Amino acid sequence: MQPLDVIKEVDMTVATPGMTLLITDTTGTTRCMFQLDTNGRFHSIPLSENGLALVTLIENTCEDSNVSVLYIGGTGGSARGGVTRKPIELTKAIHDGKAHLTIGGANAFVMPGGGINFMVDTGKVVPNSFTWVPTPATVAPVEYTMTKTDYEAIGGHMDAIQNLDDLKGA
């Protein structure tokens, strides 16, 4: 499609020879200017100073689009059981704000209601974090962060805790 394809006809009772026409896209990055002749036809002319100022203003108020996917999922009892001997206490800790849920390092929105159901912007998750199993189901990397005291209070596996400095030295 050519820029002038958007013009069906020129009404010379309204238009006047010498008038200019600026055609641009919505982002201002594609632009051209035309001038009307006495026969009602437009001819390409260099972009005027005012035309350039306008498309620059349009261009400066646009931003690149960003496409992502919202992943909606939940953690079942067995996934919570790997964290604590009292899985329902983990759910309560998440909903009460005593434990923080991240998915592949990205903050997740926890849905209201029971269970640990969440939504996360996959554009903020560490790349290649998701997988699937033939159940069929997708598998997301779920992280819970809380104080050691709160972990113990929810029945966390305290005997499995290791000191970070010890792990770094291993």
Describe the structure.
It is built from 5 helices and 11 strands, in the order E-E-E-H-E-H-H-E-E-E-E-E-E-E-H-H. The protein is an alpha+beta fold. The chain folds into 2 domains: 58 residues, no CATH class; 88 residues, no CATH class. It has a 3-stranded antiparallel β-sheet with strand order 1-2-3, with no helix packed on it. The protein has a 3-stranded antiparallel β-sheet with strand order 4-8-7.
- The helix/strand order is EEEHEHHEEEEEEEHH
Q: Which structural class do you get from the secondary structure elements? A: alpha+beta
Q: How far is it from the N-terminal to the C-terminal residue, by CA?
A: 64 Å
Q: Which shape, going by the Cα principal axes?
A: rod-shaped
Give a brief outline of the structure:
The chain is of the alpha+beta class and 170 residues long. It contains 5 helices and 11 strands; from the N terminus they run βββαβααβββββββαα. It has a 3-stranded antiparallel sheet with strand order 1-2-3, with no helix packed on it. The protein has a 3-stranded antiparallel sheet with strand order 4-8-7. A 3-stranded antiparallel sheet has the order 6-5-11.
